Amino acid sequence: MSSADNYAEITARIGAACRASDRQPETVTLVAVSKTFGEEEIRPVLNAGQCVFGENRVQEAQAKWPALKADYPGLVLHLIGPLQSNKAGDAVALFDVIETIDREKIARAVADEMARQGRTLRLYVQVNTGLEPQKAGVAPDEVPAFLALCRAELGLTIEGLMCIPPAEENPGPHFALLEQLARDNAVEKLSMGMSSDFETAIAFGATSVRVGSALFGAR
Question: Is the whole-model pTM more than 0.85?
Fold first, then answer.
């Protein structure tokens, strides 16, 4: 199937998952993960009506999205991969949402760049729900203190929390943990769920799901 066909199928599945959880489909945003794919694969999905996309790397996004943003004015671009502090300026200039605020150095760099560039991005804190040493993210028990730092000291508004559960584990408990952390800390949005588990994430309260391979095909 084409990416446009896949898009129609995924949006239908999101709608069905929402109805199964007594939620309205418009309460869940599809973030189309377009990393490694070029304009020829992205444009059919844009033309089908998708306007929210996610990229993992700043440099790759810089190569393809400025032209697409010019052609599609309503487009919203999420950074969903790790951010290095030396790329904060480029990230703030290009992206609309950064989902991977995961340590004080990055939070400070983004705060400084937003002030310098006069841009206000929507920000998420990445939580390492599985405490995986190879994975970025704030430990669950450190979330309250980190949010306090971002809010009180740096003046940042944190819109949501994001997680990537361990690949070999049942994602449900990780989604439940993220939802509890959001509720306990007055955070509104939850970015969780990918191609293999987004319907489960919706059942646990996801407000956005990040879908790549199910939409664009294998990388």
Answer: yes
